[in-house]
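Dear Dr. H.,

I hope your travels went smoothly. While you were away I took the liberty of generating a structure for the chain from your last submission, since the lab meeting agenda had it listed for discussion. I wanted you to have the full record in hand beforehand rather than looking at slides cold. The sequence, exactly as received, is reproduced here:
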Amino acid sequence: MSNEGIVRGIHHTSFTTQNFDEMVHFYRDLLGLKQVTRADIQSEILDTITGVKNTNLKNTMLMAGNAVIEIFEYVSPKGKPAEKRPANDVGITHVCFDVVNIYPVYNRLKEAGVEFNCEPQNFNDRVIATYGRDPDGNLFELQEIIALDHKARLNWD
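The corresponding predicted structure, in token form, is as follows:
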């Protein structure tokens, strides 16, 4: 057995917001993720890990299939307000949700006032997808895999 460390996968994606309740409503109530934790946190250890001093924050973890979405609101110190970044800016641009039957999910979110770039688009009968924005303007993708075999899903040519 090796003593070398390994990366097993991605555990969670985290969003920091100044609109905690609105973001929780979006991800839990509109997208349907399961809220598994909710906490108010003040911790020197968290200060050390994040590099932000004297933190006081709200936190929740929401299950999205085999991954977790984490939402923070720094009650103090406050961060910069959200800005809508385009998909072509450098950095993490979006989180993608794997869905079954994309159109009912898209329609439910659209009826709730969620902003989308377009209706779901079919990519060569392999994937149906669209980008939208959460309440803070973060991009998210809804994606339905429709290719039948794994090799076809990976071959975008």
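Two observations you may find useful: Helices lie at 20-30, 44-50, 102-111, 150-154. Strands lie at 12-17, 34-41, 56-64, 67-76, 94-98, 115-116, 121-123, 127-133, 139-145.

With kind regards,
E. W.
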